[in-house]
Amino acid sequence: MLSGPAPYAPPAAAPSVPVRPVVLEAVSGWVPPRVVPNAGLPGQWGVDDRWVRTRTGIERRHVADPGTSTGDAAVHAARQLLEKAGNPPVDALVLATATPDHLCPATAPAVAARLGLGTIPALDIAAVCSGFVYGLALCQGAVGTALFDRVLVVGADIYSHWLDPEDRSTGVVFGDGAGAALVARGQESDCAGALLGFDLGSDGSGYDLITVVGGGARARSLAAPEEPGDRYFRMRGRAVFQHAIERMTASCGAVLERVGWRPEEVDHFVPHQANARILTAVGKRLGIPADRCALHLREVGNTGAASIPLALADAQAGGRLRPGARVLVTAFGGGLTWGSAALLCPEAPAGLQSP
């Protein structure tokens, strides 16, 4: 007698991977030495210092010399951080940038090689000004699930090589720079530097608000030749302004709810340094006092993916960040993309121990 098919039995559940506490161990920043104050902007733009400060809050920006690439800036920031931290072992490198050295290959592997990190995995993230927050979230997941013990995450952009010299709307806003951070296994979930929660999002229907039209597969697929201006970074400022306020405010609210913080409990608010009016509007909507907002914008302009680590490093160097204090960071960028994170302020490194 033939027996019927065996009854279905679901597969045994895979053993769960424990999630370990993850911390932001250290952060550092680098900007090119050449400073361009508002008074030094091109005369044909028809702007003066008061005009720029009133509309953007920016007083000066750092601009890379010819021959200095995004990869160079990333190496400067990362090397400075690693030396400050005592050259700890690093298992992987994540580079957030919208201005890569090449369309192909990614810039991160070359940065890892130049830093002497060996054959570790290295990859780029292209989330524009949200890239550093995306990178932190990726690193938290990788370290928290024991894929890596320590990851170097870098945000770097050299916008000056990508801007149209005739376009004052982007020229007055953007500067060059890089910021680096170490994300590693922590001992306790409430220790200094702990990464507590994230909120990330995107809306591809607005991809054309911040873009470089030429160079990619879309432009190459068309029979018509590219226009001369297609190689430059473009931003539709008015539309971006409103999107940035709404998306960052909502994202901050989501992550605050996730970690159980009230806005008044945030010790330091570190938004992407895009425009002083945007930062003020987001802070007001959240109910976070202006004196808790880290404002590095006036010194460096909008540095893209480097913006948040540069602002964190500046506030820490100035003694304005108390280890263990509650920090809320948020960013908005092309894609459209946005992201926020809640963390406890890291301690200034004096050499790090292996995780």
TrEMBL record:
This protein's name: Ketoacyl-ACP synthase III
CDD domains: KAS_III
A UniProt-annotated Pfam family: ACP_syn_III
Natural source organism: Streptomyces reniochalinae
UniProt keyword terms in alphabetical order: Acyltransferase, Cytoplasm, Transferase
Gene Ontology biological-process entries: fatty acid biosynthetic process; secondary metabolite biosynthetic process
Residue intervals of the Beta-ketoacyl-[acyl-carrier-protein] synthase III N-terminal domain: 123-204
Signal peptide stretch: none
Example GO molecular function: 3-oxoacyl-[acyl-carrier-protein] synthase activity
Entry keyword annotation includes Transferase: yes
